[in-house]
Amino acid sequence: MKKLLYLAANWPEPASSAAGTRTLQLLSLFREEDWEITLLSAAEKRPHTARLPSDIRTLPLWLNDSKMDAVFEELNPEAVIFDRFMLEEQYGWRIESCCPGALRILDSIDLHSLREIRRKALHENRKPEMKDWFCDSALREIASIHRCDLTLLISDAEYEILTRELHLPASLLTVLPFLLSPEEQQSWQDSPSFSDRTGFVSIGNFRHPPNADSIQYLYKTLWPQIRKQCPEADMHVYGADITPAIQTLHQPRKGFHVHGRADDALEVMRNARVCLAPLRFGAGLKGKLLDAMLAGTPSVTTPIGAEGMQGHYEWPGAIAESPDDWVAAAIDLHQQESTWTKAQQHIAPLLAGRFDRTRFKPSFLDQISRLASLAHRHAPDQLTGALLRHHQHRSTEYMSRWIEAKNRTKRN
Fold first, then answer.
1. SS3 state of residue 197
2. Which of 97, 112, 217, 401 is 20 to 30 Å from 337 by CA-CA measure?
3. Whether residues 297 and 309 fall in one domain
4. What is the pLDDT along the chain (412 residues), one digit of tens a residue?
5. Range of the domain at 23
6. C-alpha–C-alpha distance, residues 228 and 66, integer Å
7. Which candidate, 19, 311, 347, places its Cα nearest to that of 178?
8. Which of 338, 354, 370 is the last residue of a domain?
């Protein structure tokens, strides 16, 4: 039986963020192929941490502690997944030392550096430029991609950016989006009708900066105009980890309600007529927009929101940029049943074309098996990764060793 180590930044919380759902989907793929899985995280488990199947072992992940060497050596995996590039920075060098034959896989979740580049450009009222990639987060993330044997990208838009604009080797990358079973793809069809729904909804984890920014923008710029033309409708905002700044937007007299975490995100989405997601920066795929489709709820979003999700399919709702277009689209979907019904009909082909689990699973597992079976991974496109793992460029290892020695001195 092959062994997989999954090093996670957080214990999966699918009810809190799309990243938690992504983790569970990846674990499911390997479980179905009878891999023996050990999930490790340095984070504290929280009340909404998912209950994992009993055959997935969980262990604590110690940072800057050589005790992990013995753990890694004992587990001796065929493959290791790093959940985000920061985990690869912290533990990649230990894995290479303790498990030199293990396949190293980076799950980017989304390109963190792309998100940061877009946020900086937005705040400077300009478009991102090539020079923006010469920043700390981008250099770190791209270096991590090079050090790994394979990086999983959730969005084909990010694949295009990395290969066409930054010229990374395509052989180091693969696109693995959200994965839906045929049953999940059809789940929206028994959702409430137009007349059984009312109001607008938005959902997101507010530790995630794009979500916090979008709700502020919605409240200050878009909602006053929507409310003026549609005074009978309310806006309902749900999300984990509500911040004080977001909580102050709870203004029932203005029809703007901030509720905090939703007990059942899909049920909340099914009761609303329209999902609003005015995301002004970000990366990856947007779980709230996928949830909207699964709930049969048309949505209004931005090009950033639909990026990597739409492909060449019609969007189940509207994609708008200017405030006037945004307001017009939101009101039209909320007030006009014919517009709403037509938008809803675009859900099925988009889900089947973009997120079909039966299409992505075989090719991904074949790729993993092929890479894991190679005794020596010395292709020319891996030379940069070998260079970055060379001792002259292993600053994260030596920083970790310094912190460990410092902590040991304090204890003594």
1. coil
2. 217
3. yes
4. 899 999 999 999 988 888 889 999 999 999 999 999 999 999 999 888 999 999 999 999 998 899 999 999 999 999 999 999 999 999 999 999 999 999 999 999 999 999 999 999 999 999 999 999 999 999 999 999 999 999 999 999 999 999 999 999 999 999 999 999 999 999 999 999 999 999 999 999 998 999 999 999 999 999 999 999 999 999 999 998 899 999 999 999 999 999 989 989 999 999 999 999 999 999 999 999 999 999 999 999 999 999 999 999 999 999 999 999 999 999 999 999 999 999 999 999 999 999 999 999 999 999 998 887 764 555 666 767 777 766 545 677 777 877 877 787 777 6
5. 3-179+356-411
6. 61
7. 19
8. 354
- The domain boundary, picked from 321, 354, 387, lies at 354
| Residue 310 contacts residue 349 (beta carbons within 8 Å) | no
Same domain? 42 vs 89: yes
Question: Is 328 in the same domain as 366?
Answer: no
Separation of alpha carbons 48 and 26, rounded Å: 19
Place of tokens 């990366």: 283
**Greatest pairwise CA separation for the chain in angstroms:** 73
Same domain membership, residue 215 and residue 246: yes
Same structural domain, 138 and 209: no
Dist CA 202 CA 312 (whole Å): 25
Q: From the centroid of its chain, how far is CA 13?
A: 12
* Reported pTM: 0.91
297 and 325 in contact (C-beta within 8 Å)? no
* H or E stretch covering 41: strand 36-41
Please report, for the domain that includes residue 292, its CATH number: 3.40.50.2000
Distances (CA, A) of 12 to 179, 303, 309: 16, 28, 22
How many folded domains does the chain comprise? 2
Tally helices (H) and strands (E) across the chain: 19, 13
Select from 215, 18, 152, 20 the least CA-distant residue to 8: 20
Same domain, 315 and 338: yes
On whether both 80 and 223 belong to a single domain, the answer is: no
Are residues 72 and 56 part of one domain?
Answer: yes
Instruction: Kindly list the distances between the CA atom of residue 53 and the CA atoms of 17, 96, 289, 296, 365, in Å, as whole numbers in the listed order.
Output: 20, 28, 27, 29, 21
β-pair type (235-238, 299-301) = unpaired
